[in-house]
Specification:
about 260 residues; about 15% strand; four-stranded antiparallel β-sheet
Length: about 260
């Protein structure tokens, strides 16, 4: 390890960023070219020669601005700071939820340090979307066994989460349509979303031969059919289920997938 470029008071990461076991530490003094003294002892065990990453910023600052003719505002004065959040260094992503946000707003972020003396240039603005998700990406990764799969992008996991939410909403809309999207999310809906999204993720990753992927999707769809036929209910405080619904899936449990990941076109 080289201490070159690291100064007293700097923040460092011990371990591989994005994986469990990575932790944040503050350098108290640089004692030599290869040694650092930390302000506080490390809380987690680490192997010899584990990765060390120096940081100049360890927080994410989120900004919001109102939509103007489907364009983000160019003036910095139009952007309001929503808040700062420490980066989740042992996770693939750090999330910030704007409970009053949505598609009527634009968002951007910067990286800042704890003393607020360093702030990076703003990111490219992005349009807000519906923030009401039924489960986290981490929960899907855990269910599918991909928690430490650093090469599996969050965008792919997010696609399966949206697919699972859409399927669940379509099944229950005839009965619980007035409560969609669910907020707060009933536990049964959260659990079914995690399992269905994880099953879809396994099928996308390993193809239709994924036994666990097929087991998860089949199990969830069996329960969804029970909900659609009123054999099982979703507990929503103050709600009275009403209406009827029909249910169908494609592909069903016996139909082949249109394509699989190992095919080339």
């Amino acid at each position: 390890m080289s201490a070159q470029g690291i100064a007293n008071g700097d923040v460092v990461l011990v371990g591989t960023p994005g994986l469990d076991g990575c932790e944040r530490a503050v350098v108290e003094t640089v004692t030599s070219e290869t040694q650092l003294a930390l302000a506080e002892p490390l809380k987690l065990p680490h192997a010899a020669y584990e990765a060390l990453t120096a940081l100049k910023a360890d927080r994410v600052r989120t900004y919001r601005a109102s939509d103007l003719l489907n364009q983000p505002p160019e003036s910095d004065e139009a952007w309001t700071v929503l808040g700062d959040r420490e980066i989740d260094f042992d996770q693939h992503s750090t999330y910030y939820t704007d409970s009053d946000g949505g598609a009527d707003f634009w968002y951007r972020y910067t990286y800042v340090d704890a003393s607020d003396s360093v702030e990076t240039a703003p990111s490219t603005p992005i349009r807000g979307t519906n923030y009401k998700r039924y489960c986290s990406l981490r929960e899907i990764r855990e269910e599918a066994g991909f928690l430490n799969a650093v090469n599996l992008k969050d965008t792919l996991v997010e696609q399966q989460r949206r697919a699972a939410e859409a399927e669940i909403n379509a099944v229950v809309s005839g009965i619980y349509g007035a409560h969609l999207p669910f907020s707060p999310v009933p536990e049964i809906v959260r659990s079914l979303t995690i399992q269905l999204a994880a099953g879809l993720l396994l099928l996308v990753t390993f193809g239709e031969d994924s036994t666990r992927g097929n087991d998860l999707t089949s199990s969830v769809r069996t329960r969804l059919k029970a909900i659609a036929s009123r054999e099982e209910t979703i507990d929503i405080p103050g709600a009275t289920p009403g209406g009827t619904t029909t249910i169908g899936f494609w592909p069903d449990e016996t139909a082949p997938r249109a394509f699989r990941m190992d095919q080339r076109f």
